[in-house]
Amino acid sequence: MARWTQEQREQFSKFINEVLYEKLTIQDYYNIMRKLGAENRGDRFRTICHNIDGGGFNLAFNEDDRYFTCFSECGCSYSLLSLVKKRRELVGEPCTTYRSMKWICEQVGINFNFKEEVKQVKNNIYNWHELLRYSAKNRNVENKIYDNYVISKLDDCIYLPWINEGISEETQEKYQIKWYNRRQQIVIPVRNIEGKLVGCHCRNTNPDLVNDGFKYDHLRMLNGDEYKFQMGLELFGLNYNKVNIEKSKQVILLESPKSVMQADSFNMPNICTAMFGMNFSIQKLKLLLNLGVEKFVIALDRQYDVMRGQEWKKYKTKVNHIIDIVKPYAKEVSIIYDKDIDRLLDYKDSPTDKGEIIFGKLFSRREIL
């Protein structure tokens, strides 16, 4: 065994994508899942991702995009490869990406001609030494993990105004949107990349609170329990969209969870994640680099009425801050913003607020640096 060259790693990454998304048939997927011990009812499998003996039929298979989404405890999406790895870990047989991919190929008779390297290395092009040096003092900082029990105690919620704004009932169920009647709040569970609950982001519906600048808050229960989280450590929706992001090596950075959920209904793989505002951090960058992201699309809200004055200057400062963080590690950085000429968005709109057609126009005319 020997250490791979960068070219070999890129060849292996390309091979993974070709096998998972081109060579394997849909029937191959079902056959492999059965070999993993997952029974199915149509496109729903038992949740072998967190139940050793298999749970309910809550693991949904998207045949078009070829990924799995757990609508139960995990709150995560998986490629076939990441699901194989997760299953092996769960049953006490952890294995590398290399060995998991080799096992998949063996099940369907696909030639696997790669030699295992000494140490599994992430498939990316980045200078990790600089990043690790820059973030060394924060490398062990993590959000607290909360029990999922609190989510089950809140009321189910399909928020009708959001349906009118392009967030479907299916999407609201997927993201487990809840209602906290005592405070008249929409509750958005926030999960880390592994699908673990790290907090609850609440949208106030009381107009007095919203008008006073308290549009968002964290969940505070009557018994004194609070579900806070450090926004600088998390990217909303990454647990669901990481498969698409990893596959495309591209990410769209939005501000709010609501924007990510709007994009879920677009006729395109969702490669969006939300930063909880206009702030990006080294910790968030590391999450994306670990997925092999090479192209970053910055898509902030139109926080300016016209492209001049203090609001425009503040907007540009925020954009430039994100550019400064990602550019040393990116093959491409681009910016989606709404120009005064042929204006498409209203003041403070997200690029997703006007629907898929408008978002497509904004995306096509983005500025590539």
Descriptive report:
Helix 3 crosses helix 4. Helix content is 36%, strand content 16%. By secondary structure, the protein is α+β, with helices and mostly antiparallel strands. A 6-stranded antiparallel β-sheet has the order 6-7-8-9-10-11. It contains 14 helices and 16 strands. It has helices at 6-23, 26-35, 80-90, 97-108, 128-134, 149-153, 160-164, 169-174, 207-211, 238-248, 257-263, 282-289, 309-326, 356-364, and strands at 40-41, 44-45, 59-62, 67-70, 77-78, 155-156, 178-180, 185-191, 197-204, 216-220, 226-227, 250-254, 272-274, 295-298, 332-335, 367-368.
Secondary-structure element series: HHEEEEEHHHHEHHEEEHEEHEHEHEHEHE
Supply the number of helical segments: 14
Name the overall outline.
globular
Q: Which spans have pLDDT < 50 for at least 5 consecutive residues? A: 120-126
The share of residues in helices is 25-40%
Q: What structural class do you assign from the helix and strand content? A: alpha+beta
Q: Going across the major beta sheet, what is the strand order?
A: 6-7-8-9-10-11
Average pLDDT number = 86
Main pleated sheet: 6 strands, antiparallel
Q: How much of the sequence is in beta strands?
A: 15-25%
Radius of gyration: 21 Å
Distance from N terminus to C terminus (CA atoms, Å) equals 40 Å
Number of strands: 16
